[in-house]
Structures are given as C-alpha cells and as structure tokens.
Amino acid sequence: MTADQCLDQLEPLVAQVLAVSDRHTAQLKQLVNFAIQQSENMDFVLRTLLEVKEQLQIMNEKQQTLDSKQQMIDGKLQTIEDRQQGMDTKLDRILGLLGGSGK
C-alpha cells in the first residue's frame, strides 16, 4: 500500500473523528451554558429566599411588639372594667341608701 493509499484510508476516519469531536464540543458547550444558567437561577432563588427570611424576621419582631401592646391594652381594659364594676357597686349602694331613706 502506498502512502497515498494509506492517507486515503485515514482521511475519512480522521474526518469522522473530528466531526464527532465537534459535536461533542458543541454538546459540552450547551451543557456548560445550561449549568451556568442553573447556577444563576439558584443564586436568584437563594437571594430571594434570604430577602424573604429577613422580611419574615422583621414581621416577627413587629408581631412581638404588637403582642406586647395588645397585652398592655388588655390590662388597661381590665382596669377600666374593674373600676366600672366598683363604680356600679358604689352607685347601687348610693341608690340603695337614697331609696331606703325615702321610705
């Protein structure tokens, strides 16, 4: 077999190997691009999750403040109700005394 014949046999094989290599390279580039996009998506999700977590913490702190204020209001309302009940009792005594002295 002459050198030209050897080259004639090798040339299609080399061309086929190079074509497969080109396809693989293109597929690898697609995979890399896909991985980069997924990484960016995950970064976005994580940043958003962090923001939500921070907002939730702020809301929890505000809720605790509201709970404290509600307890204070409940205490004051109870004091008002107690005083009103005391006034009702005193008013009943006064009315009883006025009613008893008028008979």
What are its keywords?
single chain; 103 residues; mainly alpha; 96% helix; rod-shaped
Shape: rod-shaped
**Structural class based on helices, strands and sheet pairing:** mainly alpha
Runs in which pLDDT lies below 50 for 5 or more consecutive residues are none
Oligomer: single chain
Question: In this structure, how is the largest beta sheet organized?
Answer: none
From N to C, what is the helix and strand string? H
Distance between the termini: 147 Å
Radius of gyration: 44 Å
Question: Overall pLDDT, averaged?
Answer: 94
Q: Level of helix content?
A: over 70%
- Total beta strands: 0
Which percent band covers the strand fraction?
under 5%
The helix tally amounts to 1
Structure description:
The protein has 103 residues and is mainly alpha-helical. It is built from one helix and no strands. The protein has one helix at 3-101. The protein is rod-shaped and about 145 Å long.
Secondary structure blueprint with pairings:
Blueprint: H1 3-101
Give a concise summary.
With 103 residues, the protein is an all-alpha fold. Helices cover 96% and strands 0% of the residues. It has one helix at residues 3-101.
